[in-house]
Specification:
112 residues; alpha/beta; five-stranded mixed β-sheet
Length: 112
Amino acid sequence: MQIEFYMLDSTLIVALTGEIDHHTCVAIREAVDKTYQKKRAKNLLFDFEKVTFMDSSGIGMLMGRYRVVAIGGGKIGLYNVPKDIEKVLKMANIYKLMKAYSNKQEALKELA
C-alpha cells in the first residue's frame, strides 16, 4: 500500500495505491490521522483510482475517519472508486456517511 497526501485549501486529499485490507488498514489509519491533524485540515477526500482491492477492514477504516472528520465539523468524500469496490461500499451503506464523486473537481466544489 502506498499513500500520497496533498492539501487543496482546507481539504486533505489521500491518494491510495494497492490493497486496503486487514494488513494495511492500521498503517493507513495512522498515517491519515497523523497527517490530517498535522495539516489542520477540515475535510478529507480519498482518491481510490489505484486501489485494487478492499475488504471489510477498509469499511471500518473509512467509518473511523468519518468520525474524526465529523467531530471537527468537516466532510469526507471519495472519488475515482472502481466498480468492484463501489459494490462493497454500497453493500455496507457507506454512502450514508460520505459521498462518492466522479472526479476531484466535483468533490472539491461540494466540500468547499
